[in-house]
């Protein structure tokens, strides 16, 4: 659980000194305007922005609630109005896609009209994404959605060990998988479901252990869901990859009941210990091939 205003932990919290500057070097080689796509409660984005401010670099952050309007679009450029500032696409020299998107559509009383405008907006956004993705960037719109099943298939192709998994919406098949693996978890195939409560706290659908009682309570048929063998960890590793280098962190989350299954279920009163981690060279080579 985390407050909408931030305050979460992350492997990006280690972005101090030389590691943070590796990312910032992508943005600071010459006079530029960098656009950062993120969401309002993403603490990692704020950490990087603190460095940009310290280095007196020009940037604009676009969150899910940022007021963005399209002024014009031609065959040579487009112009946006972003929170009161006019920005032309040919002024933008760097992109950091972290999360989020642009939102242009207006809603009308007519459902028919809204559905039509939705298809128009999708075509417009597809082109704008395409234009942004041609700019020099860290991450982009084209690769923002990581398909967990495709990643597992790549791991299998490059002989990277992963736990056995099954996607199923059948109670009998799930029970067979449980009896075979003995200890299983369930997690979203895409991004976790998030819900804000009346106190402005966000609740996420974390990775969850599944036992036989959970399965027995299911109907015979349910929504296809991802299940995986639960690996009892000594520690877990989170990593990001940038310009040929791996930046990994060992997270000692296994001894805290709140974080032992999913470290993202943060315990701010007793944070997990974090240590830099170095992958073996042979493993880095395999990962780089994916």
- For the largest sheet, list the strands in their spatial order: 3-2-7-8
Main sheet record: 4 strands, parallel
Mean pLDDT: 85
Q: What portion of residues belong to β-strands?
A: 25-35%
Structure summary, number of beta strands: 17
Shape: globular
Structural class: alpha+beta
What ranges have pLDDT less than 50 throughout 5 or more consecutive residues?
A: 1-16
Q: Spell out the helices and strands N to C.
A: EHEHEEEEEHEHEHEEEEHEEEEH
Distance between the termini: 33 Å
Rg, Å, rounded: 22 Å
* Fraction of residues in H or I helices: 25-40%
Number of helices: 7
Describe what this molecule looks like in 3D.
This protein has a 4-stranded parallel sheet, covered by helices on one side. It is 27% helix and 27% strand. It is an alpha+beta fold and 290 residues long. The longest helix has 23 residues. It is built from 7 helices and 17 strands. Helix 3 links the parallel strand 7 and strand 8.
Short description:
The protein is built from seven helices and 17 strands.
Spell out the key features of this protein.
290 residues; single chain; four-stranded antiparallel beta sheet; four-stranded parallel beta sheet; alpha+beta; disordered N terminus; globular
Strand-helix topology:
Layout: E1 2-3, H1 17-24, E2 34-37, H2 43-54, E3 59-62, E4 68-73, E5 78-82, E6 85-88, E7 94-97, H3 111-133, E8 137-138, H4 148-157, E9 165-170, H5 171-181, E10 184-186, E11 194-196, E12 201-204, E13 208-210, H6 212-216, E14 221-229, E15 236-242, E16 245-252, E17 273-277, H7 281-289
Parallel strand pairs: 2-3, 2-7, 7-8
Antiparallel strand pairs: 1-12, 4-5, 5-6, 9-14, 10-13, 10-14, 11-12, 15-16, 16-17
